[in-house]
Design goal:
284 residues; seven-stranded parallel beta sheet; 9 helices; 40% helix; 12% strand
């Protein structure tokens, strides 16, 4: 590999584990983390696991951080940094909605621009977006997050077509509900809203993420394979057992009719389910 693998959002979750696994396999990896405090934390974890991992502060919303990245001459970029804002679309405060798109869409796309031009100039490179099944389908209370991931899907698709003749490949990874804490935290962001709770449509203290969640191991494995070029598909929906359901949901939009005024099943499930409910199997 001609240059390093850059992983954004590597201070926690999918990004951190994938960075550590790649480094353990002997690959040159740059783990980009959002805040300076995460630099020492991730370095310490790398030492504990006996791997050599370069850790850099890389807040994708910070223009100064983004401007430094092309100097690293990245061969593979994983746009993994992301946040999730839960809540009904009618309730989410403006600043929270804007933050959702700054972190998940504008920051990653602007970071990618400079790196993509470098890759195109040398006629090699790989760009991978950590999208979501929410980039393909939408659940209640996830409109902001799903909207940002739908935008990611559009940019990734366009880049794939635009960079093909320059020898650069693009892929997406679309995790479903995995038990990393990310989904449950999405349903607690309302605690930081600066609004009048009396004006909200919902009492968010009564709601939880409306899906059982899977063990994240399949995402770690598949992401490593995609980054190393061992998997040649463009889209990777995980767990794979969810793919028929996602296809069915997308196809159903063509025949969808106006709602009938009754509470949808997933809205009710958000009331009934407990946070962090595990799924029966981990998928593949």
């Amino acid at each position: 590999m001609a240059g390093p693998i850059l992983i954004t959002g590597a201070g926690s979750g999918f990004g951190k584990e994938v960075a550590l696994r790649l480094a353990a396999a002997g690959h040159e990896v740059i783990a980009g983390v959002e805040i300076i405090a995460q630099v020492s934390t991730v370095r310490a974890e790398a030492r504990e696991r006996g791997v050599a991992l370069r850790v850099e502060k890389l807040d994708v919303t910070d223009p100064g951080d983004r401007e430094r990245a092309p100097s690293w001459h990245v061969e593979v970029l994983l746009n993994n940094a992301g946040v999730s804002e839960g809540g009904a679309t009618a309730d989410i405060p403006e600043e929270r909605l804007r933050r959702q798109f700054e972190v998940n869409v504008f920051g990653p796309v602007l970071l990618t621009q400079g790196i993509a031009r470098q890759m195109a100039a040398r006629r090699s490179g790989r760009i991978v977006f950590m999208s979501s099944v929410a980039g393909l389908t939408v659940d209640p209370f996830t409109g902001a997050y799903a909207g940002s991931k739908h935008a990611v899907e559009a940019f990734a698709d366009a880049l794939d077509q635009e960079l093909a003749e320059f020898g650069v490949t693009v892929a997406t990874i679309n995790p479903g509900p995995f038990l990393t804490g990310f989904n449950d935290t999405m349903f607690e962001t309302w605690k930081e809203w600066r609004d009048n709770p009396a004006d909200r449509l919902y009492d968010y203290g009564q709601l939880a993420f409306p899906h059982e969640q899977f063990d994240p191991e399949p995402v770690y494995r598949r992401t490593v394979e995609v980054l190393l070029g061992e998997d040649h598909r463009y889209r990777h929906l995980l767990p794979t057992e969810m793919e028929p359901q996602a296809r069915e949901q997308v196809d159903a939009l063509w025949d969808r009719r106006l709602n009938d005024g009754r509470r949808p099943d997933l809205v009710q499930k958000a009331y009934d389910i407990s946070p962090g409910t595990p799924a029966e199997s981990a998928g593949s």
